Amino acid sequence: MRYMDDTVVMKRMSKRITFNKVWKALFFLATTFALVTLAILLYRIVTQGIDYLNIDFLTNFASRFADKAGIKAALIGSLWLMAVVAPVSIILGVGTAIYLEEYAKKNRINDFIRMNISNLAGVPSIVFGLLGLTIFVRMMGLGKSILAAGLTMSLLILPVIIVAAQEAIRAVPNEQREASYGMGATKWQTILRVVLPAAIPGILTGSILAMSRAIGETAPLVVIGIPVILQFLPNGLLSQFTALPMQIYDWAKRPQEAFQYVAAAGILVLMTVLLLMNSIAIFIRNKFQKRY
Amino acid sequence: MVSQKENKTSSVQQLIANSRNQKTKKIVEKAMPTLLFSAAIISILTTFGIVFTLIFETFEFFKRVSITDFLFGTKWLPFSGNEPLFGILPLIAGTLKVTLIAVVVAVPFGIASAIYLSEYASEKTRRIVKPILEVLAGVPTIVYGFFALTFVTPLLQEIVPGLKLFNALSPGIVVGIMILPMITSLSEDAMSSVPNSMREGALALGATKFEVAIKVVLPAALSGIVASVVLAISRAIGETMIVSLAGGSTPKFDLNVTDSIQTMTAYIVQVSTGDAGYGTTIYYSIYSVGFTLFIFTLLMNLLAHYISKRFREVY
């Protein structure tokens, strides 16, 4: 019987160990690729946009001249848009989630609703724009208004809110429901006074994240035909308006170089809004979320 | 006496109030499920709305343009005056070029970082990197488009000779960066759910961490990884703002990636920002293109769903 040759074993082993080290380094580099890209992206936008970002920029309307261009109409427009999107999408989304988690029995219709929601999440946003253009703008005659755009955006982020709310509701332990029934509460009382309060942090976190997606979404607005250069602020739900990403899109595609800096300044405003919303979401998640 | 009487009446009133309360309670209990069900129906109505809109308006389009010309035509010239051509192949070619480049960028980087995060990284690193990836996933696509146009394209022009201002390469790479977090995070989930006993078994046999990752974890998590890639491809196909800012508006049926291109989504944007009057052939053409896009992404989503269901390993 021949013993193993130590030198051969050592050689192969050291080769395998080096292999492991080299690949570990490669995997690490791949991970840093994403982080470096994010850093470059943020650095570029901050250095390009910071000089243009001042009070005038925030309080001026859009202009043909780069140095007079401002973002007032778009900023206010985006806030109006959220005023429609937030109630509509949260009410519909949470309602659907409650139905699916608390009431839905296992049957074909409910399976279909579940499958449908996951498919809807994969539909490109531009297709929602086509839906909004046909149904809300033309068929319902809402025009290129805040209401039409808001309803379109609500449908777009609805699947995200439903899934987040479902997870939050599912995380409420059954013992709490049973205790509530044990006290003589009805099903709806249990949902309203026990399940929902416990699930609200999770629902809010998911909703805010969905909302920040709606603020950054451009494609549906373009398809609906939201105008860009507006010299007035919206005064109602049926009023014309423009929004932050539309304004940025318009600046970014202008050939004059000066508008690149204006676009970067606009992006800074948009990213600041997103950052604020994300920090609120993280704050809520950390502060209120309980583990059972 | 008096007090007793008072007591009696008040208790009767209470009883009446109680029974009234009971009645509203009953109504609420019965109405709520129906009300909530109608909220759930909205999402189904949305899908029907999308499908019917697309089919209806596309049907209108095919009254004017023949289906065979649309499906097999290699020239997409909707704006050429009296003889417009509507062959969708150039738009599909543009879309696939961008998608392919995005996949070439995102898949190796995405899976490699997923391996790093799930197999090598410490809990602390993971806690820092994952939220950053979430930020990357939350950056609006319009910002990525701006980044492609003003940073990546000029950078690539230094390296690739003859690269046009609008091309397929730059938006392709940036779309890849956009879908990267999705692949990383979903693949990492798939790998993390591979039970530790399998890793420990392999390590006990003398395997290195690399061998464990490639020969044990990767095959075990393959269905989840493939599903994440297919979902990412679907996202890349439907991506709009990056390609319409940095890709250009020249639909071409070829394999060139240094030239200006047009994708399906970018065409819809081009028509939407221009003035295509309601009822013109060009107006209806955006629905036919949207329908084609919808079919592509739907197939991809169903495929991803099927893969993750069908090939899921149960431990």
From TrEMBL, chain A:
Q: How does it sit in the membrane?
A: Multi-pass membrane protein
Pfam families listed in its UniProt record = BPD_transp_1 (PF00528)
Where would you say this protein principally sits, based on its record?
Answer: membrane
InterPro entries listed in its UniProt record: MetI-like, MetI-like_sf, Phosphate_PstA
Record keyword Membrane present: yes
Protein localization: Cell membrane
Q: Does the keyword Cell membrane apply?
A: yes
Record Gene3D superfamilies: MetI-like
Task: Give every ABC transmembrane type-1 domain span.
Answer: 75-280
Q: Which GO terms describe its cellular component?
A: plasma membrane
Stretches that traverse the bilayer: 73-100, 120-140, 146-169, 218-238, 259-284
| SUPFAM superfamilies according to UniProt | MetI-like (SSF161098)
Q: Which domain of life is it from?
A: Bacteria
* Gene Ontology molecular-function annotations: phosphate transmembrane transporter activity
Q: Which GO terms describe its biological process?
A: phosphate ion transmembrane transport
- Which keywords does this Swiss-Prot/TrEMBL entry list? Cell membrane, Membrane, Transmembrane, Transmembrane helix, Transport
Q: Which NCBIfam families match?
A: 3a0107s02c
Under the heading PANTHER family, the entry gives: PHOSPHATE TRANSPORT SYSTEM PERMEASE PROTEIN PSTA, PHOSPHATE TRANSPORT SYSTEM PERMEASE PROTEIN PSTA-RELATED
Family assignment from sequence similarity: Belongs to the binding-protein-dependent transport system permease family. CysTW subfamily.
Q: What's the protein here called?
A: Phosphate transport system permease protein PstA
The protein's organism comes out as: Lysinibacillus irui
TrEMBL record, chain B:
- Stated family: Belongs to the binding-protein-dependent transport system permease family. CysTW subfamily.
Q: What Gene Ontology cellular component terms go with this record?
A: plasma membrane
Entry superkingdom: Bacteria
User: What's a Pfam family in this record?
Assistant: BPD_transp_1
Instruction: Report which gene this protein is encoded by.
Output: pstC
Q: Which InterPro entries match?
A: MetI-like (IPR000515), MetI-like_sf (IPR035906), Phosphate_PstC (IPR011864)
Known SUPFAM superfamilies for this protein?
Answer: MetI-like (SSF161098)
Q: Which UniProt keywords apply?
A: Cell membrane, Membrane, Phosphate transport, Transmembrane, Transmembrane helix, Transport
User: What is the membrane topology here?
Assistant: Multi-pass membrane protein
What's this protein's name?
A: Phosphate transport system permease protein
Name all ABC transmembrane type-1 domain ranges.
Answer: 92-304
Q: What is its main location?
A: membrane
